[in-house]
Amino acid sequence: MASTGARIVGLVLVFGMVMMPSLAKDYSVGDTSGWATGVDYTTWTSDKTFAVGDGLVFNYGSGHTVDEVSGSDYKTCTTGNSITSDSSGATTIPLKTAGTHYFICGVVGHCGMGMKLSVTVGSGSTTTAPASKGASTPPSTDGSNSTVVTPAVTTPTSTSTGLATSLSNSPIVALMTIAGVVLSVLVLS
């Protein structure tokens, strides 16, 4: 009997480890336009809500970079002080912490042509929309494009089917399902 209980607990743990990562979303920066000059990334972020665990997928051609920078370097398009930098053409940035994250293209002049992105990452679920249509900070007085929008709607770029979809659409449902399975195991043991 103990062996069966251990197997069930093991299955519950595996189920939990498989389902929990499915709560995160990956966002393709700029959608079909990708990471390029001439794209309005403020508009792109306006209908998205980012959460810890989500990821930003930057797709771009040669001659561009993805540099994570400080807020002040973002506002002034200052290159050369990046926190991280990549020029592979396909960069995925996991959003590991809440707060505002800033990205620019490190090629001189590209940030000034609009290749800059700021995302505000919340600590909660990406499926819960704020009650307001969206709130923003006042525009910068230095003439830069630094308005940070807290969006109300999420549009993930990846899709899935079956049980993972229904559970990933509601973290509460996922946690309740896992708790129900654990409780069932405990009662049956």
Automatic annotation (TrEMBL):
Chain spans, region Disordered: 127-164
An example molecular function term from Gene Ontology annotations: metal ion binding
A Pfam family assignment: Cu_bind_like
InterPro entries: Cupredoxin, Phytocyanin-like, Phytocyanin_dom
Signal peptide: 1-24
GO CC terms of this entry: plasma membrane
TM region positions: 170-188
PROSITE patterns in alphabetical order: PHYTOCYANIN
Domain Phytocyanin: 25-123
Keywords, ordered alphabetically: Copper, Electron transport, Glycoprotein, Membrane, Metal-binding, Signal, Transmembrane, Transmembrane helix, Transport
Protein name (Swiss-Prot/TrEMBL): Phytocyanin domain-containing protein
Protein's organism: Rubus argutus (Southern blackberry)
